[in-house]
UniProtKB/TrEMBL annotation, chains A, B:
<dbReference type="GO" id="GO:0009229">
    <property type="term" value="P:thiamine diphosphate biosynthetic process"/>
</dbReference>
<dbReference type="InterPro" id="IPR036676">
    <property type="entry name" value="PurM-like_C_sf"/>
</dbReference>
<dbReference type="GO" id="GO:0009228">
    <property type="term" value="P:thiamine biosynthetic process"/>
</dbReference>
<keyword id="KW-0784">Thiamine biosynthesis</keyword>
<dbReference type="InterPro" id="IPR016188">
    <property type="entry name" value="PurM-like_N"/>
</dbReference>
<feature type="binding site">
    <location>
        <begin position="128"/>
        <end position="129"/>
    </location>
    <ligand>
        <name>ATP</name>
    </ligand>
</feature>
<dbReference type="GO" id="GO:0005524">
    <property type="term" value="F:ATP binding"/>
</dbReference>
<feature type="binding site">
    <location>
        <position position="36"/>
    </location>
    <ligand>
        <name>Mg(2+) 4</name>
    </ligand>
</feature>
<feature type="binding site">
    <location>
        <position position="36"/>
    </location>
    <ligand>
        <name>Mg(2+) 3</name>
    </ligand>
</feature>
<feature type="binding site">
    <location>
        <position position="220"/>
    </location>
    <ligand>
        <name>ATP</name>
    </ligand>
</feature>
<dbReference type="InterPro" id="IPR006283">
    <property type="entry name" value="ThiL-like"/>
</dbReference>
<feature type="binding site">
    <location>
        <position position="52"/>
    </location>
    <ligand>
        <name>Mg(2+) 2</name>
    </ligand>
</feature>
<feature type="binding site">
    <location>
        <position position="272"/>
    </location>
    <ligand>
        <name>substrate</name>
    </ligand>
</feature>
<keyword id="KW-0418">Kinase</keyword>
<dbReference type="InterPro" id="IPR036921">
    <property type="entry name" value="PurM-like_N_sf"/>
</dbReference>
<keyword id="KW-0808">Transferase</keyword>
<feature type="binding site">
    <location>
        <position position="221"/>
    </location>
    <ligand>
        <name>Mg(2+) 5</name>
    </ligand>
</feature>
Length: 320, 320
């Protein structure tokens, strides 16, 4: 297989020209890539913004992920942060570092993944940077719009609220465990795919906000650890009900049997599914796509499971 | 000297708590660090956005720069991109990667530099990410506001316009050469400081826009290479006049003598000064702080110097 010229052979400007040529931008993009900065509509008069960095060997492996999958994952996890505020993504900026001997075709494939996932999230790549780095490093900033609504913070939950989730839980953790074990059963490939490219429930953040969500976050580090932060910010406790999570457990049973693992460890501590988890007033009608998984309590004892402590790993720490 | 606990010993969340505690935000920051995303005022109804990644060993060296200087440089160069659109910076997001054994105190010092330079630029750090990485990597996204004005693009220059600059030229290139040669004369320390922490002329981007600038960019890769891009985007040529740049040459003479170097190479090809260079209609009154350095011509022959070609290095390529 010929991989074509490298970044070093083509140079920064030629590669940027190649990956930006012919890209279509949404109507919200007044000035796209190619000038000193982009200009993006912010119709609300406020802009929502979040940034995440993915480092090769730490957040992805190029022997597991294709360049396109790396790009899709980087956009998906940042888009989920915008959704978790009750906003909709409007644009993404991508700074990318790679070794000088990286084939330019790999950067084009990464760029294809970035653009495809941005389109799925309803937005465009509006700007970026391309530099030399010892390993691949992808740093994405996502921008979004609240359409006049208040932002849904982590701090708004009250005792008596219900806890609900949109999207899937535990799939990414199971997929990682399968990859790590070298288990390649075709029947389990969908879980691996979910680890390589998470599927946030696009549109559900704004839908939850319109339905009256009092607090929201996305499941990035692990359900328990992410809800601990929400509970601490709100000054409440949260109790999760395993009976309400049976569908997630059932979806993971085959992988758990194959690996001799506990599916609940993936559901509660796996992270990287980028599902949305939110609190709603007990009287609220949950929007379509949301399912009840627990309750907000007055006890300041963090997050419990069926009323008891969770003794497994609660999630991921960047330096753990 | 005790360096205290490392990132790995404290963990991601404790370090983030330590560097965000007590930071003050500007009035434009509705939601600062600590939630899934930040919320920033965008009073114009559009937001200007740019991103740059700095990689240790490529864009800075920790044996040359203090962590605080790295932070200040990262903000300054991104702020200059916002200024170059005729906008004012309103907020910065910073994704930072570092080895697990990095002293947390170094990250605090980096954060101090980020915040101090953001304040100089008139804005705040509104969000970020902290991850493990084999080397220091700082990725900044700058956001800005146009206050109702059109963005000043690279493509708006016309034959007959004048070319003017705000800020200094060649200092960063001279400072780099001094560092690279191990030349440590105290009399030349100011040039080294300029390389380690560029000083964009904050506020001059908006001032140029109000004065009618037709095209603008910042000097990041090198005066010639940056103006070539502007000239190509505008479909014009640019001729620079060395007689108008005598003050820059004079400021570099001592360093040039010390190193046996040509000061014009730093002025025309040095880059990283993050001065602003703009075109104005010939009849415009240049704002205070701007000085005439050349003219826009109808010939599509790129950038010339005193009517002839520039045969030196035109600037920097990320993969060169």
């Amino acid at each position: 297989m010929t991989e074509g010229p490298t970044l070093g052979e083509l140079g920064e400007f030629a590669v940027i020209d190649a990956i930006t040529a012919g890209r279509r931008h949404g109507d919200a993009v007044r000035v796209g890539p190619g000038d000193d900065a982009a200009v993006l509509d912010a119709p609300d008069g406020r802009v929502v913004a979040s940034t995440d960095m993915l480092v090769q060997g730490r957040h992805f492996r190029l022997d597991w992920s294709s360049p396109e999958q790396v790009g899709r994952k980087a956009i998906a996890q940042n888009a989920a942060d915008i959704e978790a505020m009750g906003a909709v993504p409007t644009g993404f900026l991508v700074a990318f570092g790679a070794p000088v001997d990286t084939p330019a075709s790999a950067v084009t494939a990464l760029s294809d993944g970035l653009s495809a996932e941005a389109a799925r999230a309803g937005a465009s790549i509006i700007g970026g940077d391309l530099v030399a780095s010892p390993q691949w490093t992808v740093s994405v900033t996502a921008l979004g719009d609240l359409a006049g609504r208040p932002a849904v913070l982590r701090s708004g939950a009250s005792a008596g609220d219900v806890v609900a989730v949109a999207g899937e839980l535990g799939r990414s953790g199971a997929g990682y465990a399968l990859l790590d074990a070298g288990a390649a059963e075709p029947a389990l490939a969908a879980l691996v795919d979910r680890h390589l490219v998470p599927q946030p429930p696009y549109g559900q953040g704004a839908r939850a906000a319109r339905a009256g969500a009092t607090a929201m976050t996305d499941v990035s580090d692990g359900l328990i650890i992410d809800l601990r932060q929400l509970a601490a910010a709100s000054g409440v406790g949260i109790d999760l009900h395993t009976a309400r999570l049976a569908a997630d457990r059932d979806a993971l049973t085959a992988a758990a049997v194959a690996l001799g693992a506990d599916p609940w460890a993936w559901i509660f501590g796996g992270g990287e599914d980028h599902a949305l988890v939110a609190c709603f007033p007990a009287a609220a009608v949950l929007p379509q796509g949301w399912r009840l998984i627990g309750a907000v309590t007055a006890e300041h004892d963090g997050v419990t499971v069926d009323g008891g402590g969770w003794t497994g790993r609660p999630g991921w720490d960047s330096f753990g």
